[in-house]
Amino acid sequence: MKRLSYATLQEQHYKGYLLPVAPVKALQFGEGNFLRAFVDSFLDILNEKAGFCGKVTVVQPRPARVRPGMREYLNEQEGLYTLYLRGLFAGKKVSEKRVISCIDRCLNACDDFASLMECAENPHLRYIFSNTTEAGIVYDPSCSFADAPASSFPGKLTQFLYRRFQRFGKEKGKGFILLPCELIDDNGKVLKDCVLKYAVQWQLGKEFTRWIEEENLFCSTLVDRIVTGYPKDEAFALCEENGYEDKALTAGEVFGFWVIEGPQWLQNELPFEKAGLPVLFTTDHRPYKQRKVRILNGAHTAMAMGAYLAGQDIVRDCMADDVICGFMRKAVYTEIIPTLTLPKDASERFAQAVAERFQNPFIDHALLSISLNSTSKWRTRILPSLKAYLQNTGKLPVCLTASFALYIAFYCGTELTGDGLFAARTDGCRYTVSDDENVLAFYFAHRGESPRELVYAVCKNTDFWEEDLTRLDGFADAAAKLLEKTKTEGAYAVMKSCIETQTC
């Protein structure tokens, strides 16, 4: 079978949109599945429907030995790959296929550092995207300007920006619009702060710092799309159907939403609306992030561990269970949405879309995957809603309080090894609790305590919550009763009782 290429598609008389040649307008730090199924997909449609006419140079930010293959795959396929977006839309199954042609080439920041720096001299280059994981935007003072390259992503970016400044520093309009996609709060601001720290540490001069401030725009963003990546179980059949081999094939859900914080003129420069793409420009992205984290991620965390203890394994099956789905819906609609800053009707529409996404027939989203590192997840996704509900009403939200008890029940393991904390649910199925070492050690050390003793010990652990949760009026006592009920009657009974009652 021939490898995907422009020649292969031409031989097949491919009728879809392709952009073989165009100036490189964007640099992208990150070659992973998410950026290729989200940002590159959006840019490809922008090329087709809004006349953007721009290519992307992709940069593999880590050494090739850390993630081998993708640079070679993309370059061998002339930047082409096939993207499948699949899911439910208005209650109907949707499967969309598109050959993405916006990528020009893929470089490795370590092996191709000189080539990366040469990209800074491209007069057409205007945009920089990134997704270097949540741990990627960090300031590492051990980085040196003489490193080739600096080990941190902000260090590499600063080196790149300085090369740009050297070449075009005296010309207006040659700075960049930077749109980081890492899932951290205020990602644009944090990235800019890192760059400015390096500028000072490396003594790059006040003129460079002024150029960063005046000629570059760091936009904080929110990105939302579940990307499942290379569909290994289907890849051979899909390639057979397409008539070509595609090593960079990737897949994700149909739903996509991109919030970009920036000035109004940016909407004209990046005409996503003209292309019909789900991109929202705003002066403040934080309410949208709050909504996404508390509804989508909060629903996952509130439901997943209890549902797993009740015998379920994947999200889609939970949505078909009246009790588990009812528990999740009550948590979202009566306990989370009333605490959000965005209008209620918009939040409810988002919640409806989330429910449809959870029913996606193409994604087997494992509850155990959602349960990873649930201590920090509960703190960031659930605790703010619980506290806001308690402050607004003077009452504890029953489902969110129960989610805390169910989280503790899930963490009640009996064997601690280097692989994690081993536990078992009532059907005898053993599972591994995965979290930070200190979290697992804590639960193992408290494994013989009564529900009340355990709940109080967990609540008082300020390393977990950054506060003492026993200070929340009635919370520890209510959670202890729910944990006792979980141990005696089961997680399913607890979720059912939450649907039927109004208060803890």
- What is the architecture of the largest domain at the second tier of CATH? 3-Layer(aba) Sandwich
Please give the count of helices. Answer: 23
Cα shape: globular
Radius of gyration: 25 Å
Beta content comes to: 15-25%
* Helical percentage: 40-55%
Q: Within the CATH hierarchy, at the fold level, what is the topology of the largest domain?
A: Rossmann fold
* Distance separating the two termini: 62 Å
What is the name of the CATH class of the largest domain? Alpha Beta
Number of strands: 16
Task: Give the overall pLDDT as a whole number.
Answer: 96
CATH superfamily of the largest domain: NAD(P)-binding Rossmann-like Domain
Oligomer: single chain
Main β sheet profile? 6 strands, parallel
Low-pLDDT parts are none
Biggest sheet: strands side by side, in what order?
A: 5-2-1-6-7-8
Integer count of domains: 2
Structural class: alpha/beta
